[in-house]
Amino acid sequence: MNMFSMPHIGTSPTGALGTIADVPGVTVGHCTLADGPIQTGVTVVRAHRDDPYRHKVPAAASVINGFGKSIGLVQVEELGVLETPIALTNTFGVAAVAQAQIRAALASNPQIGRDWPTVNPLVFECNDGYLNDIQALAIEESHYMQALDAAAVEFERGSVGAGRGMSCFDLKGGIGSASRVANVAGRDFTVGALVLANFGRLPMLTIDGTPLGRELHRRKQSTTPAKPEQGSIIMIVATDAPLDSRQLKRLSMRTAAGLARTGSVYGHGSGDIALAFSTAWTVPHESDFIATPPLLGDARLDPLFHACADSVEQAIVDALWSATSVTGRDAHTRLSLREAAPDLQQLLKRHTA
Fold first, then answer.
1. From CA 332, how far away is CA 350, in angstroms rounded?
2. CA-to-CA distance for 84 and 259, rounded, in angstroms?
3. Keywords in UniProt for this one (predicted)?
4. I need a labelling partner for 179 at 20 to 30 A (CA). Which of 28, 53, 117, 223 fits?
5. Whole-number Å distance between alpha carbons of 71 and 93
């Protein structure tokens, strides 16, 4: 399907699959709604196959620009763990997906909300209202369950799941993913990223240092001034490196470096949020004492920081590379990068020659 060779960002090697699923245990599933004006969906990221409430993983989030309507960030900040899979959807679908997460947790653990504390659903969103009739409130609880059931090591990227109706740099955006292998203190660890890319204006687009968006904007011969950056991006980072929630907070902040390289300035109307988690250890729900593996020293984290920035930048490029053109409500259309720049390979070679 892909006629172009996607550039490799940075110098670190990629994992076997080149996605977030290179981190052992991580799986991704989609439910895609594509019917006329309804162009939306749900994407789910699972840290492992065990019960997420009983076997929590350490996590932390960074809000780079807070123009967003997510659910669950306050408790993640306080307790530093995940209790449900991570869900992505459109802005008006957040409540339905959170409700589905709660029902799924109750079905597995009837003690929740009675003998045990309540569960913290975790849902992130971007506004897909340009292509999708967001006012139709099309997302239902069943769509979350379909995405959850579909979670697998191999998954589609581009115009699928939560990414179905998303735009990126005035082109078709959506789901992108990448991975990098980092050597730390003589051991290899994997850092994987998955993004829901829905941000930026065309003149800003930069791919591997190439100001590609300026050329594409010039070709349009538009005299209309470029609008301010709007939209959002959700960046999910997974690693098998043994980190605690404080260190994962530091890792999540490095997503901003990868995001900035693509041309984003985290504009006023953009919700730019990152979450990082580790699969190296779990926190049992019923435990008086928590056994942790030896954690990496902070002074050894730089290779992971590099891997995070590179994998996020690569994942954004992957979202553009993988997307297909979509026409949605009121005949609004977003062209894929492949259609907008059929000579893309030549443009990139010209810059690097």
1. 32
2. 26
3. Aminopeptidase, Hydrolase, Protease
4. 53
5. 11
Task: Decide: 180 and 14 in contact? Cβ < 8 Å.
Answer: yes
Q: What is the mean pLDDT of each run of 10 residues along the chain (353 residues)?
A: 74 96 98 98 98 98 95 97 98 98 98 97 97 98 98 98 97 98 96 98 94 89 69 96 98 98 92 97 91 95 98 98 98 95 81 57
Q: What's the token pair of residue 72? A: 């669950």
Domains delineated in the chain = 20-352 (3.60.70.12)
Tokens describing residue 47 = 């840290």
Does the predicted model carry a pTM greater than 0.70? yes
Nearest Cα to Cα of residue 93 among 125, 60, 61: 125
Tokens encoding 100: 């589905």
| Token pair belonging to 23 | 């981190």
Inter-axis angle of helices 94-108 and 141-149, to 10 degrees?
Answer: 60
CB 312 within 8 A of CB 193: yes
